[in-house]
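EI: anyone free to look at a 233-residue chain?
SC: sure, send it
EI:
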Amino acid sequence: MKSLYLLCLALGSSAFAQTITFNGCHNLFDADNTFIFNKIGVDAYNKNIYMTTPINDQQSCSGLGICEFKIQWNNALTRWEFLADEGYGTFTNPLLIYYNSTGNNNFVGNPPSITFGTWVENTAVTQPAGGCGGNLTPSNSTMTGDVHSTSLAVSDVKADSKIQIFPNPVADVIRISGIDNGQSVQIYNMAGQLVKSEVFDQKINVSQLTSGIYLLKINTKNFQTHEFKFVKK
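SC: here you go
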């Protein structure tokens, strides 16, 4: 990366691929400067890896120069990190721009949203120090799509009250009501592993799952995400 910074995220997801789009920190980036991240894989801890594309050392980030970015999990420090390439498109010695250490439950493999926890700015790298106010907030950036906004603990899972899943506990088929723009569904086990992923349907066959607690994640066509805990009998 010829110079640093990145502060805009917007995320969209398709049935089997996820993308993140970022826009923000307009004192450093133009208001229309948007970075698109694509999911490029999953690490050894079942956490997704996202990278701006194409990686060609040619993406402009306004007056800051040329930027390439990656969002990935740092298991040693138990946090999500927003990294900048060192300038050659290789990420051999990436630079830390932001990190989020809040709510990193192993239940899911995607990073927290701006409204969950704090994406802290690494002011040792970004200059002038605190150039984006010290962290990402809804007032200086946007992030939507394949991000989670709850800790996903048993008592913390939240969703639109108009959307319901039933029965719960379930033996064979979960039914989904109150949603007409669903795009995809994923089911995660308690270890955070993705055990089922398919195109959205109001009936989801879970008969093949072993007994236990799972997270059902519903992605919509307008990039919203709804999460429900359920028990498989």
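EI: The mean pLDDT is 75.
SC: 👍
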